[in-house]
Amino acid sequence: MIEFHKASLADAAWVRQRFAEGARIGCEFSFGNMLCYLSVMDIYVADIAGCFVSRCVLPDFDEYSFPVGAGDKAKAVEELCAYVKEIGRPANFYGLIETDKELLETTFPDRFCIERHRESFDYIYLRSDLQTLSGKKYQSKRNHISFFKRNNLWTYERITDANKAECLAMSREWVNANVHDDAAALNRELKLITEGFRLFDDIGFVGGLIRCDGRVVAYCMGEALSDDVFCVHYEKAFADIRGAYAMINQQFVEHELQRFTYVNREDDVGEENLRQAKLSYHPAFFLEKYEVRLFP
Q1: Which of 37, 42, 199, 251 has its C-alpha lying 20 to 30 A from 205's C-alpha?
Q2: If you compute the radius of gyration of the chain from its CA atoms, what whole number of angstroms results?
């Protein structure tokens, strides 16, 4: 039987090796973010047939990442199906990309129900677009940034031990200001962010912040997924300060991401406002994803 164990920082080397072997640029396959999610859910990992697989134990079902790595993916799928049947819990594979879908359709014809999952598509942008914001399509972004610069005494800083606490305090203030929204979801996100700052250096996060008159009003942070793709996991700004979101987005890319070609700004989780915000930055492409239902 497969032996899953609770994910931890000790898994960094082999998990990242499997991600690199699989050339994954999806936000699900980011080691640091996975560790942050341990603060809100139970996540277990295993090396199956030379592939990384995670198991997220949810109240009513389990979610398994599709096998990733240089190993035998078909064998890993077979072993996982046997495992799911043995433990008797409903389950699904998540985060499949087109090549995973093709592998299942070719190796296991008519065996799985594969569903396109629009709300989990990652938005992938050219770093150069986010930095320069050139062209008519970015006129409104440039206007917001110009307004911000004219009306604020501002500075940019890289996130370090010296300012992490201020960013976390800003996060709490942001949650309190948005308490009219889904309180449970906001508190869950605050737990993720808190864990991100706690593990910041250990998991290789990079972040930046904007100050106005000395006060932190925006920040973002994330991690490299490959040599040319960076993933932004968390971004916060005070919405009542016009241009704060556009400013941290542009300044972070300009100061910290020069060596990357692409920026993955993750999915929109099906939220219409978030979808429109991400579309307004004109992604270079979507990383399309699928889910597979598994029935024990």
Answers
A1: 42
A2: 20
